[in-house]
Amino acid sequence: MLIHGFVDQTPPVSSVYHGIVGESPQMAEIFTRIDKVAVGDVNVCIHGESGTGKELIARAIHYASPRRDRPLITLDCTTIPEGLMESHLFGHVKGAFTGATEHREGVFALAHTGSLFIDELGELSSALQAKLLRVIQTREFSKVGGTKPIRTDIRLITATNKDLKAAVAQGLFREDLYYRVAVFMIKVPALRERPDDIPRLVDHFLRRFAGLYGKRITKVAPATLERMLELPWPGNIRQLENFLEQAVVLAEGDTLTDRDLFAGDFSSVAGPTLSGLFEAGLPLGEVERRHILRTLHKVRGNRTEAARLLQISVRCLQYKLKAYGRDIDGAAGSGLGLVPSQQYLRS
Asked: Average of pLDDT values for 77-95?
């Protein structure tokens, strides 16, 4: 794990659950829910923002279940054109439509006796929602162009980044299907809601990419890790993984620094709150002014703490504030439109 910016070479154990990295209270609760639901065949719906690891949770449910030795088949609704979705779900017979030159099995047939994970369920059209509902109710389906009913024995796990209850209220998702697929709900928190897991995730990805690219990276600069803890990561774990891979590729020494991690598009990870501090074309002095005042706001006007974070002396900080024409109380107030640190980290 990361200890004071260094990577402990002891392999992590307790924080990895079926390939899922996390030791925060939020993730501990999810692990408990997985353990409880895995033993049966109840339908599970996993809800969370993109990049939060919903597929990993689906895999954990399958491999902790009695069906672990049977197939786990995944269908991502965002990657299949609507005109081909029915065929991917249920299969088709030869000649069912133009281009159907041979029989094809769908995911329901491929997942027979195992688990079927349908990702981004909320993308299904109303017509396919109705057909999926019927399959769940009858445990039977027919191939496109076919008439023979086929029995199916699967454990259904679905995931969505949409609020399906709101979609039901708006008439965009069938209420009867919602109650069929969401018998057991698992809500996955965004990465910004569990910052305690970031050091362990950094450790996990750093080990992987250092080995993959043959780099001897053994530590992360403390200031860099602190900065990562403050960012909102709108793309969640997937974005953190992407940034760390880029950083490992760019790193030249044994220490991962800001220069490595934030060499690319900083605004995409910073979000609107931070990116506004670094608008293209701002004079360097204005960037410094905004950063100093934001830091003061974060520590609620504590000059000593602000100077420590900025790595300057208190006297230097006072000099700069005087030059800005701002007193300490003003800098700590809300004049910049910046959010308090707790709200920023957890909203």
From this structure: 91
